[in-house]
Amino acid sequence: MAATGTTAVDRAATYRKIALRIMPLLVLCYIVSFIDRTNIGIAQQGLNRDLGLGPAVYGLGVTLFFVGFILFEVPSNALLARIGARKTLVRIMASWGAVTIATLFVRDELTFYLARFLLGVTEAGFFPGALFYLSRWFPSARRTRMTAVFFVGVPVSGVLGSIVSGAIMHGFGGLGGLADWQWLFLVEGIPPIVLALLVLRWLVDEPEQARWLRADERAAVRADLDEDQRRKDPGDRAGHDGLLAALRDRKVWLLGLCACGAYTLANAVSFWTPRIIADAGVGNVLNLGFFSALPPLAGILVMLLVGRHSDRTLERRWHAAASWLVAAGAMVALSFAGHNVGLVVLLLAILAAAHYAGLTVFYSIPSIYLSTRAAATGIAVVTSMGSFAAAVSPSLLGFIQAGTGSLALGLQISAGIVLLAVALLLIGVRPGDLREQPS
Q1: Neighbour-count burial for 91-112, b at 16+ CB within 10 Å, e otherwise
Q2: What CATH number is given to the structural domain containing 328?
Q3: How far is residue 215's CA from residue 324's CA, in Å, rounded to a whole number?
Q4: Is residue 1 part of a domain?
Q5: How far from the centroid of its chain's Cα atoms is residue 1's Cα?
Q6: What is the DSSP letter of 107?
Q7: Distance CA 118, CA 101 (A)
Q8: Residue 249: inside a domain, yes or no?
Q9: What is the mean pLDDT of residues 398-416?
Q10: Residue 201 structural domain
């Protein structure tokens, strides 16, 4: 039940007001985050041409991004719990923008590796920090659809990033003595710095600080969030206070292992889509950007529909698992698609849609289970564990392609990892572990 004095509040209108206030900016930040993280997929052709950085070097560079990401993910979110999400997001965005711009000075393998590592260091904490921020505004029964809206930034970044990155490289290459890939990093490093200033001025950390909500609306939101916590088992809540206690909980480790499958999928979609399409016979950088933009389009509608259905039914496990099963099947099919560009793009679209849908639902689970006090650290632990797979899989795929001339075996191994994650999720997480009621 809602707290006394809040029952007359139109909750649907209140949460719609909150969503319209904070979600557009958060989504825009996430779009820019993924563009700056994955634009290396378009830039790799120029890096290979000018600096001789081949697939194995590229794969290791992607891996080193996640090494930096892993090392600083939990410390970043521990700091978030102390200074608040807004200041943390500002710090992260301004610093990754600066590193992106500095990447134009890469000259060899060593400086390439250093740039990717530093990008991971500076971006660490943004994703779990944003999820934690959503948990401070939306109760669990409404959070998955908001998580789905937030995750729209991933496919949109795939669409815009591929097209914009291809256009920058095609149109600016050679101007001012800078190569096409140097212009790419210069231009795409500016938006996160600008957005950091907007976050500082536009967002607040808690509903109680939101002067754009009426007093009764703020009270209603607080009542809903407090009710969320009361529904959780007190023993679980006490057991998740602090990093050490979270690491002692088997469910945190279980979700982290499931995240390995999610991140293996994420890498295949985000970092290797341009390479898979190029291997199918698309060589022109502008065409490569266009074809790479098509698969994420399929993910937007599917992701929103699956997230909305998951919230309506309050079912999480099978929504995520079924999506991942489809994605694993698409990866295996891709390994046999050969040089049929149309078939490759279709299978990549299925893979992207299934990946985004599963990721949206899966990442609603930690914030449903974990207490408010542990949410920031707990989500960061799960994300960090998944990032281990993200750190290993790019190098694996890169070395497999360098050794065999094809990504087929790497895609099949990746599909096997995803299937293991499905089994862990369905066996290890019981429906009773996710205590929710309609809000």
Answers
A1: bbbbbbbebbbbbbebeeeeeb
A2: 1.20.1250.20
A3: 43
A4: no
A5: 34
A6: -
A7: 12
A8: yes
A9: 80
A10: 11-433
Quick check: is 364 in a domain? Answer: yes
Q: What pLDDT is recorded for position 60? A: 83
pLDDT at residue 436 is higher than 70: no
pLDDT at 433: 64
Residue 370: pLDDT band (50, 70, 90) is low
Give the burial class of 365: count Cβ atoms within 10 A of its Cβ; 0-12 exposed, 13-18 middle, 19 or more buried. buried
Contact 278, 401 (CB under 8 A): no
CB 423 within 8 A of CB 324: no
Give the mean pLDDT of the chain. Answer: 82
What average pLDDT does this structure show over 206-229? 88
Provide CB contacts within 8 A for 215, sequence distance 6+. Answer: none
Mean pLDDT of the 36-53 span: 85
Q: Copy the structure tokens of residue 202.
A: 């536009």
Lowest mean pLDDT among 178-182, 231-235, 314-318: 231-235
Q: What percent of the chain has pLDDT over 70?
A: 87
Tell me which of 84-93, 292-301, 306-315 is least confident.
292-301
DSSP alpha helix (H) spans, 240-371: 243-247, 250-270, 273-279, 285-313, 317-334, 341-362, 365-369
| Total structural domains within the chain | 1
Residue 6 lies in a domain: no
The count of C-alpha atoms lying within 13 angstroms of the C-alpha of 151, restricted to the half-sphere facing its C-beta, is 33
CA 290 to chain centre: 22
Residues 6+ apart with CB under 8 A from 371: 229, 232, 236, 237, 240, 241
Token pair for 8: 């007359």
Q: How far apart are CA 383 and CA 246, in angstroms?
A: 13
pLDDT of residue 188 exceeding 90: yes
Buried b (16+ CB within 10 A) or exposed e, 395-433: bbbbebbeeeeebbebbbbbbebbbebbebbeebbeeeb
> Which helix H or strand E contains 394, and what residues bound it?
helix 372-404
